[in-house]
Design goal:
By secondary structure, this protein is α/β, with parallel strands linked by helices. Helix content is 39%, strand content 14%.
């Protein structure tokens, strides 16, 4: 296991997509654009800025085209779009997405609930998306949802996950994401599976997507990091959750992750004070408190004056 935490950890911010998709309050297009523009200034190299799914399925993100066309793009930042099918891919391409994130579940039941089709149908459709991207500057990432467990089917066989990873790579996808869609992973399980997947892809190709549903999100990050993973999804304020999976509460919190990394000496390149300022503005935007902890408690370096009349 790694004891010297010295290699850079890449954070992909997913609040504009995974964070907002489950919010009951409509967030205006201009506010989404402003959120992404501020994230673009915080030091992220990757931002999942929206999705191109059916407005009936995810009404909170029905303005994906306008959002992608309205953001102020920063040099070196990759703006990712989640897409479900060829139609969504064409919309994302027209709107200027840099990368397409395609999702299929390791669980047949969850895939039917989430995508309204069987896994075999999803894979077949992804072939059309790969053909569309060929000859363009688009990169493709394949996400395996419910990698570490499904609320409908329970334990997911690791070999089934590896089979999907292999299928993605055979299709020609450049990146792979292992998603703990409902927060069912544990560190030992994560360490073992990440090691197996890294025999197939390089660390630069692999992303881990954890939820903090059962309080193990950051523990799972460290387990994956020790196994060799270097890129992780996180959501400002801890926003997010899957609308089609019972109990799928928020993603791991970006500022909590960055704070942990700073305390451990792991470089991220992310401006933590900027993140905290942004996170503290979310309750006014969304109408409720955020689950993130550091925005409430402050950093360890945020010292307070000693009580008056204290005797030493």
């Amino acid at each position: 296991m790694i004891t010297d935490y010295c290699e850079r950890l890449i954070v992909q911010e997913v609040a504009p997509r995974d964070g907002l998709q489950i919010e009951p309050k409509w967030v205006e297009t201009a506010d989404k654009i402003a959120l992404i523009d501020q994230l673009s200034l915080a030091g992220f190299s990757r931002i999942e800025a929206g999705s191109f799914v059916s407005p009936k399925a995810i009404p909170a993100l029905r303005d994906g085209d306008e959002v992608f066309r309205g953001i102020q793009r920063q040099p070196g930042v990759i703006y990712v779009a989640l897409i479900p099918n060829l139609k969504g891919a064409q919309r994302a391409l027209d709107a200027g997405a840099d990368e397409l994130n395609l999702v299929m579940s390791a669980s047949q039941t969850h895939n039917l609930a989430n995508m309204r089709m069987r896994r075999e149908q999803s894979l077949s459709g992804f072939g059309d998306v790969v053909a569309l991207a060929r000859g363009t500057s688009l990169s493709l990432n394949g996400t395996v949802a419910t990698t570490f467990g499904c609320p409908f089917e329970g334990v997911i066989d690791e070999d089934s996950v590896l089979h999907i990873v292999d299928a993605y790579l055979e299709l020609g996808m450049q990146g792979i994401t292992l998603a703990d869609t409902t927060g069912m992973a544990n560190p030992r399980q994560v360490y073992r599976l990440v090691q197996r997947v890294l025999t197939r892809v390089a660390p630069a190709q692999l992303t881990l997507h954890f939820h903090n549903t059962r309080g193990l999100g950051l523990s799972n990050v460290l387990a994956a990091y020790e196994a060799g993973a270097r890129r992780f999804d996180a959501s400002l304020g801890g926003l997010g959750g899957c609308p089609f999976a019972p109990g799928a509460s928020g993603n791991i919190c970006t500022e909590d992750l960055v704070n942990m990394c700073e305390e451990m000496g792991i470089q991220t390149g992310i401006d933590l004070p900027h993140l905290l300022q942004m996170s503290r503005s979310l309750p006014a935007l969304l109408g409720h408190e955020m689950p993130g902890q550091v925005a409430k408690a402050g950093r360890n370096s945020d010292l307070h004056p000693a009580p008056e009349n204290l005797l030493f």
